[in-house]
Automatic annotation (TrEMBL):
SUPFAM superfamilies: UDP-Glycosyltransferase/glycogen phosphorylase. It comes from Anaerovibrio slackiae. Keywords: Transferase. This is Glycosyltransferase family 4 protein. InterPro entries: Glyco_trans_4-like_N (IPR028098). CDD domains: GT4_WbuB-like (cd03794). GO terms for molecular function: transferase activity. Gene3D superfamilies: Glycogen Phosphorylase B (3.40.50.2000). Residues 16-197 form the Glycosyltransferase subfamily 4-like N-terminal domain. It comes from the Bacteria. The keyword Transferase applies.
Length: 406
């Protein structure tokens, strides 16, 4: 099968996020399919931007369409989207040349690309699949508080409605989203869920020795363990969506001998550090961002891993966070502060779930975990590992994705 996957923000191990298109495509290539991924030359999600127009990575043909760079969510990002979509219209012969797709996968976060992708699918009599990462334009409306009457939102809503009426399948990361798409015109029986996944063998092989900058932080964690502290870690971006201010507030009420580590960087880090200083939080430490392959070194030394989200009605459609799966793969017991349509931590029996934004419940969960014997924490970690390897291996998910298309 010839698969054309179009994802504005597509990345790879070489460039960084987002990884899902790369991991799925790599498995499809192993299964004997031919895959072309089309992405923008600039994405704010990547650690590194491609310096070429085309390349082959692990058997995947990448085509990078030139777009402007930008910062933040202003006019620069909108221009970047517009340039990418425009080129999908006018550069189809260049993108495909001698490649005739059997399926076209519309995989970007926003739905605007569906119009040129529908033309491509019709031209080659290919199936058209809409892969949903976030529900747009509902996400910027509910999280960003944008009005339904905003011109940007109205354009995106038109695109989503068009997609629901014209695609052959919708494949969503969100398990509870079917009703939403049925309301917007999708026919019954066209919705399937393929959640985010993990690469099991690669996760083990890519753990490397700590860099010089990491050794001091890791030694500090070793010292805490020797002093019989329990370590709770958050590893990831310090942004508003992660609700880390709730974790800091909870730290004020934690009674146990616990150290809370925030590993990473992000737009909210400076404000969080200032807040921790003003509150005199001696049980909270901020560690710098480290390469992806070093994160397991930190998780290994922690006892519990934490994830929190803002309380948003949008999450009623379910969630599929990579962070939870990374924690499970590291065999960590998990504290989750999220209100969502599904509860992966409870399903996997690998930790404690508390309501989003409830600092007292988060503090109680930390104290409860800290009081558990190490054997019990290890048992919870093993439950999570068993769950994620059985349900979220990208080798299995890639096969499911193809079977749903067929």
């Amino acid at each position: 099968m010839n698969i054309l996957l179009i994802n504005h923000y597509a990345g790879s191990d070489k460039y960084g996020m987002e990884y899902r298109p790369y991991y799925l495509a790599r498995e499809w290539v192993k299964l004997g399919h031919n895959v072309t991924i089309v992405g923008a030359s600039f994405s704010h999600l990547r650690n590194k931007q491609p310096a070429c127009r085309e390349e082959i990575v692990d058997g995947i043909h990448y085509v990078w369409l030139p777009t402007n760079s930008y910062k933040g969510n202003g006019i620069g990002r909108i221009l970047n989207m517009g340039l990418f979509v425009l080129q999908l219209f006018i550069r189809q012969n260049y993108i495909l040349s001698d490649f005739v797709p059997d399926v076209v996968i519309a995989s970007s976060t926003y739905p605007l690309e569906i119009f040129p992708e529908k033309l491509i699918a019709a031209k080659y009599k290919a199936k058209l699949v809409y892969e949903v990462h976030d529900i747009w334009p509902l996400s910027p409306m509910e999280i960003g508080k944008m009005s339904a009457q905003h011109p940007f939102i109205r354009i995106m809503q038109t695109a989503e409605d068009y997609a629901c009426r014209h695609v052959d399948k919708i494949i969503s990361l969100l398990p509870k989203a079917e009703e939403h798409y049925l309301e917007h015109g999708l026919a019954k029986g066209k919705f399937f869920c393929v959640p985010n996944g993990v690469v099991i063998a690669e996760n083990k092989s890519k753990v490397q020795a700590a860099s010089e900058s990491s050794e001091e932080c890791l030694r500090q964690m070793d010292n805490w363990r020797r002093d019989n502290y329990r370590i709770v870690i958050f590893a990831g971006s310090h942004g508003k969506a992660n609700a880390l201010d709730v974790l800091l507030s909870a730290a004020k009420y934690v009674q146990s001998r616990t150290k809370i580590v925030l590993l990473g960087d992000g737009p909210e880090k400076e404000a969080l550090q200032e807040k921790a200083t003003n509150w005199g939080l001696k049980n909270v430490s901020f560690f710098p961002r480290v390469p992806k392959h070093e994160v397991p070194l930190y998780l290994e030394k922690a006892d519990v891993a934490y994830i929190g989200w803002l309380s948003r009605d949008l999450y009623r459609f379910g969630i599929s966070p990579n962070k939870i799966m990374d924690y499970m793969l590291a065999k960590k017991a998990i504290i989750q502060s999220i209100d969502a349509g599904n509860d992966i931590v409870r399903e996997a029996a690998c930790g404690i779930s508390v309501p989003a934004g409830d600092e007292n419940k988060v503090a109680e969960a930390i104290d409860k975990m800290a009081a558990m014997p190490l054997e019990k924490l290890a048992e919870l970690g093993k439950n999570g590992y068993r769950y994620v390897t059985q349900n979220h291996d990208y080798r299995v998910l890639a096969e499911k994705f193809i079977s749903y298309i067929r």
